Amino acid sequence: MPRHASPSPETTGTHPTESPGAVVDPTGAPAAAGDALHSPGPVGDAIVTARDLVKVYGAGSTAVHALRGVDVDFARGALTAIMGPSGSGKSTLMHCLAGLDTATSGTVTVDGQRVSDMSQRQLTALRRTHIGFVFQAYNLVPTLTAAENITLPMDIARAGVDRERFDAVVDAVDLRDRLDHRPSELSGGQQQRVAVARALVARPAVVFADEPTGNLDSRSAGDLLEYLRRSVDDLGQTMVMVTHDPRSAAFADRVLFLADGRIVGELEQPTQTGILDALGELTPETER
Ligand SMILES: Nc1ncnc2c1ncn2[C@@H]1O[C@H](COP(=O)(O)OP(=O)(O)OP(=O)(O)O)[C@@H](O)[C@H]1O
């Protein structure tokens, strides 16, 4: 769902800060910003879904209820941000959606495949073929060039590299003139762009990004977010990004808010101001 025809200045994200995104109510009608957060409604053409997802770490009196029955859909070809206070369950949700962790109960479906029923072996195959990952640390191999790092997962899997896709991805993240460089010859932002290209090149159904700009300075972070946005708009890539940063989240089509293991609301077409207002509603005054 391309909607950012021309990226706006990096300092404000792609949405104007002056007009907050609307908080969506359960009937689907946009409500005025500042209203209480409401549960998200259904999403058409969802590529990732979770139903009544529960994750409990430990047992008995020390049990931690990280997810308390999450129902959520992620739309195909959209960039969705997940936000919420520390400990609200963002990483746990992402790990369960991506097959990196197993939920205690509930179901996860990725691209028509029921992740929650899979064996470890099937999960490994799913992650390799259907899911791309971008983490805070770039995790590049220092002895390989940018091009070799991008195709490494496919080389390991002995899968042929689709040159057309490779070119489209390299252009989307603007790495054409850096392909022969090793990571030590690249800036942090360029290294993360290599990591993004590596995540995208196998045409995954969905890319999960965990604080992808966490190691970058403000300018490089803004650039990276533009490239992530372009990957969604130009390549139709579905992307889910966990972030603490309202500026990063403002690049998304939709922001989901977690609190205490539950999805407590969402913003569509979010702005930084709308996100800050929503976070203010969720975060106890003592933690602000
Ligand atoms: N392996 C684990 N064992 C026990 N408890 C865990 C484990 N992983 C996470 N938790 C707990 O589950 C809850 C949710 O953690 P999670 O990391 O998903 O939150 P988060 O929203 O990603 O937090 P942050 O923003 O600080 O990264 C927290 O109370 C956390 O302490």
From TrEMBL:
CDD domains: ABC_MJ0796_LolCDE_FtsE (cd03255). Keywords: ATP-binding, Nucleotide-binding, Transport. Residues 48-285 form the ABC transporter domain. Residues 8-17 have a biased composition (Polar residues). It holds the Pfam family ABC_tran. One of its GO terms (cellular component) is plasma membrane. SMART domains: AAA. This is ABC transporter related. It comes from Beutenbergia cavernae (strain ATCC BAA-8 / DSM 12333 / CCUG 43141 / JCM 11478 / NBRC 16432 / NCIMB 13614 / HKI 0122).
